[in-house]
Every structure is written in structure tokens, then in C-alpha cells.
Fold each of these.
Amino acid sequence: MAQETLGYALGGLHHVQLAIPPGAEGLCREFWGGVLGMAELAKPPALAARGGCWFRGGGLEVHLGVEEDFRPNRKAHPGMILVSSLQALADRLTAHGVDVTWDDDFPGHRRFYACDRLGNRLEFLEPVRER
């Protein structure tokens, strides 16, 4: 069904949220801010009391929320992290001790998987030009 007939249009994603264990904000700042180079955002006061942290960079916003019975996401993951130089990012992650697993099974894209410092699976993609 065309969105025009529904009276609204979906415009994109505002943010992706991942769970983190209590007290893991420092690890998140090191990975999302230090390794990936994203800027930390100030959380609204009502939400800041819950812990966690938020980051933004390159049109992507990631909210890291505290979950008492945290378990890292191994299958469900943000897969929309588009990168302009996938190899440079893979090299940077590897230099910071992050394992990178390449996967060539997505036509039209190069991609790899990596985990943040808490074990949450992330998918990084770069569109490729068909020859």
C-alpha cells in the first residue's frame, strides 16, 4: 500500500538503541566516542538519571540504555551503519583490538561484522559500484 494513501510517510530512523549493563558507560565512551569518533550527546535530565549514554556521528544516532539483566545482542544488530571507507574503519577497529569478520554475501555492498566492547554485534557496510 502506498504511503500517500495512508496520510503519512515514513522519513527514516531517528536512532538505534542498544542495551548495556549498569556501569558500562566508560567502555561505551571509549568505543563509540574514542574508536568510532562519534560525539556524545547530552541526555535529557529525566533520562540521564537512568544511566547510559547517547552518541551521534555521520547521520547516525545510537542510544545506549542500561538494562539490569544485560545480554549482548549476537544476532539482532544495527545493520545500517554505512561507511565511506570500510577498509580504513576495519583497520582502525583492528588496531584497537576489535575483531572484524568480513562477509561478502550481500550483493552491492562490502560488509563486515564487529562487536562493541560489550559484545553487541554491529554490521558496517559500504556500497560498491557494479562493474
Amino acid sequence: MELIGGIRHENVTPLRAYYYSKDEKLMVYDYYEQGCVSAMFHGNRGEGRNPLDWETRLAIGAARGIAHIHTQSGGKLVHGNIKAANIFLNSQGYGCVSEMGLATLMSQIPQPAMRVAGYRATEVTDSRKVTHASDVYSFGVLVLELLTGKSPIHATGGEEGWRERDEREKASETR
């Protein structure tokens, strides 16, 4: 955790403090008034919604933050839980990666409670086996969510989500 706490980059949310015990695992990060990408995209669907413009979507900065994480500790550090809820927007609208290292800290918790299946690479079955490639896959899912405006984990209003549709189509092709 000291390694994670020492990472400083404009697109990585700094870990300010953490607490680890048998019953609780807590991590303290900076507060971002703009919130996370997931809340901006899927939270407020009514009046006053603040949609991301293309410039912000493309300049989100999360890729730079993830790339920086991957260079730390001799290239051995992996995020392991990239999703829209873990990308926060700073006051300039650039993405900042959060919850880095939580997968390592929470390795005793069963996998479904840790990572959202819609973002997880299919080859990842154990939280201790996440890789740079699985982070890249999760980032790709995040980019697809930014482009389509649809969540990879659940659809709204009875619609089928894009990931569910893809899995259904693959299953029908194998028959």
C-alpha cells in the first residue's frame, strides 16, 4: 500500500490514507466535486444533466493514468478494477483513476463482490490474476460505454445491454 500511496500523477487519484483490519478495509482518496464518469453518464437522466462533450470524452485522461500505474514498481503494478465508477473527473474535466490497488487489498473477498462482470476480461477468474491485458480490456469496455452511453452491466427501461446481447449472440452461434 505504501507503493500505491506514493504514486503521483495528474490522472491518478492519490491515496491519502488506508486502514486494514480483519473486519474493515478502508481507503481514503481526494474528493472530486464533478463525481465519477458512471454517475455523470447513468445517474441523472433528467433536467440539469451534464453530459460529457466529445472533447472531454476523448481527453478523459484515464488512459494516461492507467499507463502510469502500469509503469510503477518495474511494470508489476496492475489496477484490476477499471470501471466508470472508478474514474473521477477533476475540475478541468480530465479523468483520474481511483481505487487502484483495492483488488490487492481485498483479495480475500469473493470475486463477484470485487469487480463488475461487465468490465472484467473473461479470462480473469481470480482477483490475484489480473494483468495489464485485463486492465486494457476493462478500459476498452469503458471507452465503449463512453461512446454508446450504455452501461455494460445493466440496461435501463427493459432494454438488453450491449454485453448481454453480445453473449446471447455468441451462444446462438455455437449451436
Amino acid sequence: MHLLSRDVSSRLRCQAISNQRLMSKEFKKRMQLTGCHLISLAIGVLWAGLLFRLYRKYACIKQWLVPNWIHERIPTGGGVVYILFIIPYMLHDVVFDMLSHGSFDFFKTRTLLIQGLISVGVLIGWYDDVYGNRQVKSIRGHLQALWKRGEVTSGIMKLLTLPLIGALIAFVHAENVRQESGWGMVLDLVKGAFLAGVLTHVFNLLDLRPLRAVKGCLLLLTATLLVGLGSGSIGASVKGAQMMSISSIASMTSISSILSSPMTILSSPTTASTVTAASIMSETSFGVFLLVMSLFEARRKLIIGDAGALLMGLWLTHVALAWTPVFFQILLIVILLPVIVYAEKYSLSRLIEKHPCLRAFDTWGVR
């Protein structure tokens, strides 16, 4: 009996030691994961800051300057820096996949397509910032210029191309492109077109004061994330993120992919949860870029311009299509359309100035 009790206690002791070792390994993995994320975020901030400084100097040399609301002439089109921010990732991911696997993964292709579509929209916005006709304003003004003078303004270009980009983003997000056909696909494309058109135009309207568009983006992004959590779309992705191996994370922290943090995808994305986990990282990195951009805009170092407004609008289109149910996407369109109609007749800035709470929120953080 005494020997039996000693044997049981010995087994329990061994099991406790084994559990302790497992917990220690798990803790080390979590610490390594946290360290990788912190390093990635820090280098992302430094990389974005460097790019904004270089763009600001180059814009001053090229005289891409416009007066802000207090008549200071400062560089415009700062949102275009995002394209430079993601180039290292795109090069790293393509070259790494081709050299290591000899092929290109579908999920990474989908990710790069979305990045490419967003970049096209940002370039269109930047062209409007630098070369667009500033005498023509509002949708009505651009349509009148086309109808009366036959002038295809940069605003008309945006009016035609942005819904198309939104429809293509919706097409890329379709989970079963081959199976889905007919009215289902048509409705998806229309929904994506409306989301992109409405969101980008709203941010265009807000981009009249420093940080106003950024604050609007953060509010809508927060609502989108909360709805995504409530619907369970993000919950599955968190589990996927926890299942990532340390080797996958280590591959993410190579200098090339860290600099490009906006769309880091796992080395072997085979499940939907893994893909969405990578999407969470991309949104986190977009937040880092947004933070650095906000610091420059708040200090009146540059204007994010239409390039920044279109970047935020198309990103929110992508996030809404990826993480939220259909009812929320339609609700966004229904809520924001009246804002656009109101802004065609009245001034949003005057409306904000009339209400103390809105005015305080609008000026918060601006130097």
C-alpha cells in the first residue's frame, strides 16, 4: 500500500513537472509572438515616418503646395505615401513565394489584388490633388463641366473609377467565385460599388480640416470591428492567429516584410481563419500608417488630400466586405447617402461650427 501511494505521488509529480514545462514553452512562444509584433509595429512607424518626411521635402521642391484653411501653403497628396509603404511587402512576398515554393498562393494573390486596387484609387486621388482643377467642386460641378464644356475633370475620373474599384474588391472577396453566379454576384458587385463610392466621397467631404477625415475613419472602423466581433467573423480569426507557429512569425519579421507590414500573410494560409488572422494584422498595420499620417497632418506638415481620403474609403470598403454581414454594409450606405446629399447644398464645416460638441471633437488634437 505504501509502495502504491509512493508510485502515485511520483506520477503526479512527473505530470506536474511536464505541465509546468508545457506552460513554460507556451509562455515563451507568447512572449516571442508579442516581441515580434512590437518590433514589427516599431519598424513600421519608423518606415512610415521616413517616407512622409521624404515626400514632404520632394513635394516642396516640386511645388505641390496648396493653401489650407488658414491660408498656409503646405504639401498635398500625402496619402500617396501608402503605396511606397507597401512596395517592399509586395516585392518580398512575390519573390519569397517564387523562390521557396516555385508557385504563388491563391490567398496571397487575393491579398495583392486588393492592395493593387486600393493603390490605383490612391493614385487617382493623388492626381486630383496635384493636377486636378480646383475651381470645379461638388458632384454637380463636375457633371456640369462635362455636360456644358465637355471637360473630363479628375472628379469625373473618380466618379467612374471608384465604384468600379469597389466592385472589383467585392469580386475578389467573393468566397465562391466559381459557384456564385447570376443575381448573387451582381448584387455583390453593386454593393461593393456603392460602398466604395459612398465611403470615398464622404471622406472627401470631411477632408477640409486636419484630422477630420481620420477621426471619421476611426469611428467607422471601430463600428465595423464591433459589428465584426458581434457577428463572429473576427472571433474565428483570433483563434487562427493563436495557432500561428513561431517559424511563421519569424518569417514575418524579416526586414522586407516588416517594412511592408500592411499585408503580411502567413507562410501557409490553408484555412479561412488563417486568412482572416492575416487580415487582422493588415488592419493593425494600416492603423500604424494612419497614426503616423495623422501626426504629420495634425502638425500642419502636409495635407493627406484626396489620396488619403480615397485610401481610407477603399480600406473601409475592404474591411466592411471582409468582416461584416450584408445588413451592416447596406446600413452604412443608407446612413451616409444623406450626408452626401446634404453636403451638395450646405457646408459641413458650418454645421460642425454651430454645435459645440462637434466643434470640440473636430479641433481635438489639431495644433
Amino acid sequence: MKARIPVRSPLAALVFLPLIVACGKPVDKLWEFPTSSPLYSTPLVVGDLVIFGSESGVLHAVDKKGQARWQFQAPSAQIFAHPQSDGKLVFFGTTNQTFYAVDLKGQLRWQVAARERIKSDPAVVEGVAYFTSYDGHVYAVNAENGKRRWQFPAADASPAAEESLILTVAKAGAWLNAAAFEVKNLEARLSEAIKGRKDKALTLNLEPGLPAAQVAKVKAAAAKAGFDPVAVLALREGESFQAPLVPPPPKPVEPAVKPAEFSYAAPVIRDGVLYVGNLDGFMYALQTADGTLKWRFQAGEGITSTAWVEGGVVYFGSKDDHVYALEAASGVQVKWKKKTSGDVLSSPRVRDGVLAIGSNDGNFYLLDAATGQEKCHFTAAGPIISYGVFWEDWIFFGAGQGDGSVYAIDHNCQKVWSYKTGYKIESDPVIDGDTMFVTSGDMKLYAFKLKKP
């Protein structure tokens, strides 16, 4: 007896089809690209390339199909930064205290040195590349050639004044010591002694008993070498004088503001102002024209969160467990702050009045950007350092140690989708059109296809 095949009415088929689509996966994995070391660098998409760094100091470039294109090896380095590009060059810093610019074929164009490791993402705006270092400085360099425009603080100290050069004119004989000589060839000696000196401060000592004829020769030689004639005329046997040709430089002066280490917080540029957090707990606002300090605001602990600036407000997280909303013009008024139960190392993102941010308490929060009031939160199995990326009606982010998943949630903090990688995710997802790229500590770059909800 033949099995009976149920027959569905056309109406039933129309009802059933949308149900199948609604229950389908909202995200499909396209491919994964394995490397030989952990990946905590957020990918950069430029043209057909996806570029990211590794803990072994390799900058990888793959195409959007997951095929390797080129590599650049930074010696004795780790790369944690999210590379940035101006469309011609790719910029990134490393832990070997060097900031690099390579072209889109992976060829080195230039490099500049800091005095400590570089872990944060750079910013590239209008031909200038900005980056920070654990040496306590913010640097601005020409994006084309790496020539420095300014640094903040401007200098650790003014150039030290050269010590006054003391020369002794002896009665006779050869050199008595490193700075003592006879009158013979005095003019050449004096000229040589002051050559290249900025302050040209010089003390001439005439040894007692020097004959009058030789004193006259000293005066003539000193005047011809460029010393003040009045001071030369005052020179007498057995006397000394100091005759600076130009005022000596000022004594070393410590900068008025001396930041601690700039770590993972990246510089953000808005309307001619650079905003960046520091491990000393301050959020700094600098003028991009010359690097002068506009204001700084102190949170309770260090800031590794990258700021989001919108509508005259600076949003950021701090290791004091809080999310801050700070008035951007002067840095004086705290509009609101929201306490979480862990360090806030994640960076905020704002869209349509909703602020998304993670915390080391394992929660990913959606807050009202105007008031800081919590709308909802999603709890993962590990700390959330990754920032959230808005796409359509969803927010994507990665979870750290103990979890290792990339998540999609809706605006009610309900999980829409997740994918578990082999280790923690401390980088940020990047969405290009309907394709998402994310790196993991499991040494792989992942690509996912997103489907509109």
C-alpha cells in the first residue's frame, strides 16, 4: 500500500513560507582565516582588503574571500591596534615603540619612533595621523611622510643650557689642560671653542703675570673672535670675565601637565579637538592645530575606553566602573554617569539616542544617551571589552575570557544570534555592507554574512 502524501492548500503554503524565513539563521559564517598567533586587533576594511594585526607583530592583509594577499612583519613587536587608512597608506603602532605607515601592497613607506610601546588605535584626519604611547605623549605627524607636527606635552623639558665654557690663557708652554692654552693662535682657538655653541658663554681666565703685550693680543683675539668689545677692554692681567654673546637658554622646566601612560584609549577628533583618555584617570581635550591642552577631566580611575563625541557630549567608560557623559566644550559639567559592577574598558557607541557599551561585569548595556538611564542589559559569560556595532535593528559585539562568542542582540537586549569562537574576543566587530569581520584570540579572522531582520 502506497504511503499517502498529504496535500497542502495554496493558502497553507503562503502561511508556512514566511515562518521558514523568520526561523532561518540571521547570520551565516562565510569563512575563517587562520594565523599563527592570537588576534586582538580590530580589522580594517579598505577597498577589497581586510587588514589586521597579530600578537606576533604581523600585519595581515586578506581579500574579502579570505585569501591571503600580503604580510608586513614588524620586528620584535605585537600589534593590538585597529589599523587606520587614508585610502593610500595604512597606519598602525606596535609594542616595539614604532608607528608605521605601509602602502596598500604592504610596503613600508615610513616609520617614526616613540619612547614606549603603542597599543591604541591611531586616528587619521585631513592629512594628519595622531597616535598615543605609553611614554605619556600624544603625537601628531604628517600622514604623507611621518614628519612630526607636534607632541603633547610639548617636551619633557626645555633644552638644557650649555655649561659655561671656561678657558685659561697661560703664560707659555703647551696646553696646560683641556681648556688651557697659550696666547699663540688664540684667535683660532677661541673661534674653535665657541663654534656651534648656542649660548657662546665663555669665561677667559688670564694667568697672573701674563705680559702686557700678550694681554693686548688676548683682547684683540677675543674681539676678533666675536666677543663683546666692552668686556674685552675690561680684561686685565690676573682677572677673569664672562662674556656671553647671546642670552643662554632658560633652565629646564617641567611641563605644566605631565600625563601618565596612554594605553588602549584611541584619540578621537571632532571639530578641531582631540579627545583621549589616560591611565592617570584623566580625559584630555587637545587643540588639533598645535596640541595645546584645552581641558582635562578626572574620573575615579584610569581610562582605556575610547570616547564617543556627539551632540556636544563626550561619552566614555572608566576603570572606576562608571560610564560618563561629559559636556564637551569645557569638560566641567558631568551630565550623568552610570555605575556598573566592573571596569568599563569597552568603548561607547551611540545611535538614535541609544548608547551601547560593555562592562567587565559581563553585561552589555543599552542606555538612554540623554539621561544615562538603563534601558536593558544582556549578560554574557565573560567580560565585554568589545564595543557594540549597530546594524539594522541589531547590535553586534564580542565577549572576552570565559566566553569567546560574538553576539547579536536586539534593542530589548534579547539574543538574536551568537557564534562561539575558540578563545576570547577583545577586538571589535567591523561591518562592511552586509558582511561582518571579527578577530579572536583563537588566532582566526572570521567573516559572516548578515541577513536583514
